[in-house]
Amino acid sequence: MAQALYEKSPVIMADVLLTLQGDEHRDRRQVEYRVFDRYSLLGYERN
User: Fold this and answer.
1) What's 32's DSSP letter?
2) Residue 21: what pLDDT?
3) pLDDT band at 28 (very low <50, low <70, confident <90, very high)
4) Distance CA 5, CA 13 (A)
5) Which of 7-16 are b and which e, b meaning 16 or more Cβ less than 10 Å from the residue's Cβ?
6) Pair 2, 19: CB distance under 8 Å
7) How far apart are CA 37 and CA 21, in angstroms?
């Protein structure tokens, strides 16, 4: 699925988590986890 999407729209799919591998994938997941972890989401709901 990701491959077909990437071929049709490389600009949109560039740097998308589905297409990242290795260190890039891990680094992006770590950043996104901090934004979407349970405690952050609770804080967003309070504000």
Assistant:
1) H
2) 83
3) confident
4) 7
5) eeeeeebeee
6) yes
7) 22
